[in-house]
Design a protein that fits this description.
The complex is a heterodimer of chains A (about 260) and B (about 200). Chain A is an alpha+beta fold and about 260 residues long. Chain A has 4 helices and 12 strands, in the order αααββββββββββββα. Helix content of chain A is about 25%, strand content about 30%. In chain A, β8 and β9 form a beta hairpin. The chains are: A alpha+beta (about 260), B mainly alpha (about 200).
Chain lengths: ~260, ~200
């Protein structure tokens, strides 16, 4: 009897349970398991009948490290500019070289035209006496909002049917236009700005007058006036239709050439 | 100090210090005798705690490997039984904390502690239990308890270790062992009665 065993302190059920417990036979291991344990004790050798589970802690650490590395790689890749502006055509003495970085002002004089393309995303053509301010090249990710501003004149552009990054806007003093996969034109005169749509979709937001955004249907144009009048939606003119159709059919230039 | 003799080993001579010194020196013959004295007890204890004879074999091998590495620290003047069972209990606790145990419980759905009839994993013991309703009831009741309660009952009442030795093994005071044991035995009795009555009613 052990040192402090007190049968009188037990309930009858507990006493009966302990009595049964002490009669419980012992389990016996097989000879092979016994031999392994013997070898472990006498010789210090270890043989596993049941393979130890894989060391998942190490795997988890490795997976976490890989995930962090992958996230960093994606961030670095995403922060890189996807493409740069490339001059694809020029008429007259229009500026072909020089600064085409963020904030650069490009202008065409009388009789001059200039065409630029941003990778496989966007091509636009500046007609004579047009001035634009370039945004920075689109980033692959985390691009934020980038504006191509038309200060004066006319541009015709196409995305070649592709969707432009949602943060890319065209702007004038009177409006901003969000373009998603389309062929379009943006004009600016002294009194108003106009956005023309050949195909795709454009949302035009007037800057003044508290007017609602205008969602243009294909082959429509909207005039947004500097004096705050309500925007005016009209069908495309024949000239606009012809120019936009040509732009659409030409698509994007093959920059590999 | 004369080591106490348990009901399982009442006919075996107690280890003398000279023999334990030979074990300390890792003399093969002494190691073999030491192993034969403890292997069955340790294996049964591990299986009683874990209820898994396959993993129990590996845990038991771990126990003896640890004993092999620690045998130089054996105190020849003392009964080595508490030391052996302390290593065994720690190995089982390591297993309980392991992913393998968690996975086994999940895969086997072993959250069946309220089940009235729990089979013994050893065929021989199970055969004996099938003829004896009281053995079935106490085995099932034992495994309805938490791991700590089950361990203290097995150490105190099945292996018949002293309270102070159990306290050293578990790293708690003897008084805490008494309290835990008292509470565990009361629960065991209640669960045993429930199973006994259920079997009688059926």
């Amino acid at each position: 009897m052990n040192d402090d065993r007190r049968p009188d302190a037990l309930t009858p059920d507990a006493a009966a349970a302990l009595q049964a417990l002490r009669r419980l036979p012992r389990a016996h291991a097989g000879d092979e398991a016994r031999a392994r344990a013997f070898a472990a004790f006498v010789h210090g050798t270890e043989v596993r009948a049941f393979p130890a589970p894989p060391r998942r802690r190490g795997l988890r650490v490795a997976a976490a490290a890989l995930a962090v590395a992958a996230a960093l790689a994606v961030m670095i890749w995403g922060m890189r500019p996807s493409d740069h502006w490339v001059v694809t055509d020029a008429v007259g003495t229009a500026q072909q070289a020089g600064d085409r970085q963020e904030g650069a002002v490009l202008a065409t004089g009388p009789g001059e035209e200039l065409e630029l393309q941003l990778g496989e995303r966007l091509r636009f053509r500046m007609l004579p006496e047009t001035e634009v301010v370039l945004p920075s090249p689109l980033r692959r990710l985390f691009g934020g909002t980038q504006r191509l501003t038309v200060r004066r004149g006319e541009i015709y552009g196409t995305t070649g049917g592709r969707h432009l990054a949602p943060g890319f806007l065209f702007a004038t003093g009177e409006l901003s236009a969000r373009i998603t996969g389309t062929t379009f034109a943006v004009f600016r005169t002294e009194e108003a700005s106009c956005v023309c749509l050949w195909e795709g979709g454009i949302t035009v937001t007037p800057r003044a007058g508290g007017h609602h955004a205008v969602i243009l249907n294909p082959e429509q144009r909207v005039w947004v006036y500097r004096d705050g009048r309500a925007p005016e939606v009209l069908p495309l003119s024949d000239m606009e239709r012809m120019k936009l159709q040509m732009m659409s059919e030409a698509g994007l230039a093959d920059l590999a050439d | 100090m004369v080591p106490p003799r348990s009901r399982f080993h009442g006919d075996e001579p107690a280890f003398d210090p000279d023999f334990l010194q030979r074990v300390q020196r890792r003399e093969p013959q002494a190691m073999g005798a030491f192993f034969e004295r403890y292997y069955d007890r340790v294996y049964a204890h591990v299986v009683n705690l874990m209820r898994d004879p396959v993993r129990g074999q590996d845990v038991c091998q771990d126990v003896f490997l640890k004993l092999h590495h620690a045998v130089a620290k054996l105190d020849p003047r003392r009964d080595p039984t508490p030391w052996v069972f302390a290593v065994a209990s720690n190995a089982v606790r390591d297993h309980w904390r392991s992913r393998a145990h968690t996975r086994d419980r999940r895969e086997q759905g072993v959250e069946d502690l309220g089940v009235l009839d729990v089979a013994h994993p050893d065929r021989g013991v199970q055969a004996a239990m099938e003829k004896d309703q009281e053995l079935r009831a106490v085995w099932s009741a034992l495994h309805s308890l938490g791991e700590d309660d089950r361990e203290v009952i097995l150490l105190r009442d099945y292996e018949e270790l002293e309270t102070k030795d159990v306290a050293d093994m578990l790293g708690i005071t003897p008084e805490a062992v008494r309290q835990r044991h008292s509470r565990a035995v009361r629960r065991l009795g209640e669960e045993y009665r429930r199973r006994h009555d259920a079997a009688a009613g059926s």
